[in-house]
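seq:
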Amino acid sequence: MPDLFSRLSKIIDDAREEITALTVDLVQFPTINPPGEAYTPCAQYIGRRLLASGFEVTYMRGRDTPGDSDKYPRTNVIARRQGKYPGPTVHFNSHIDVVVAGEGWSVDPFEGVIRDGRIIARGTCDMKGGLASSIIAAESYMRANPDFPGAIEISGTVDEESGGFGGVAYLASKGLFSKPRVDHVIIPEPLNKDRICLGHRGVWWAQIQTKGQIAHGSMPFLGDCAVRHMGAVLNAFEQDLYPKLNQKRTNMPVVPKGAKRSTMNINAIHGGESDDYEGLPAPNVPDSCSLTIDRRFLIEEDITEVKAEVVEILEGLKSSRKNFDYSIEDIMEVLPLMSDRDGPVPTAVAEGIKQVFGKDPQYIISPGTYDQKHISRIGHLHDCIAYGPGILDLAHQPDEFIIIDDMVESAKVMAFALHQLLTR
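struct:
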């Protein structure tokens, strides 16, 4: 084992320029979601790379999933390298989609500028740097131990930023994240190079609509303003719901500290005139207003209670506020998830962290969900964690970056964990 680890370390150290170039190439595909741009060319680039490394490569489109169309096909790539002897399968899964660049960048967000040992671009941290690290880890391991048992899989999947339904959820529904095909999964999300993420908080997305009656804006007393009704909803949330959420705490090791409590974000609000008109708005009383909520909850909370807290406020307004009426629609719900820290994948990655950094890992829970949710709930595969380079707080920020040394070190951890999982 010491000799193998030394060989792996040298091979990966020597691949520093390669891991840098691979990351730059990946971020130059502007795989912005929504709408889902450049998915196919990015997936094909990954496929060509892994085909040249001896993997069998398959492309799967998430047909009829949200956002999928001939213009924006949900193209996923899955590569598999079979070992010399029978054994388990270890799968590295990374999403290739990124959020919109936004304002505030000091460089072109899709150029991949290298500066001070960092690569600056949208998607470096979240999570194309992790994808590059996993590819280099697998290729380096195959060079160091060409007669490995079992199988190695690497996937580049889509739509994680919008729920993962065209990517991992679709593939999981086809059996690609279930036994006997796959035994262990590592997701190289950016959660810091010396931490192991065992799972995530729960999430409930819902859309609330308040209803009114249209009338001329000069005579609002003849109508009923749905936006004012939504204002009452927001006020009730501020007065009644947010203080309750602030008091809820979890024993889960959630990071950062502020996410150890229940939270709710107002994701969007729309009422009255749509945003796509030109010129002056029409003088109308709005007869509808919609609000999207993003509620994150703890493993100690029950999803039925989470929903009931919101419905109770809405029903209270319906009984106390004149003409108040509403509807509420679920958009997405995912239960909190926490893998067993003594499982094979957490144990193997922990041993890798000890080898590379000389210390025990920190075990954490992510504040937001990621594709582990689909692997667990659809694939029923629970030996899955998130581990990868990148600083969590940089995700979705302007001038997002990844430190090259972190990618190299994380690739060593992944390669060592890969050996542990294939040979134990």
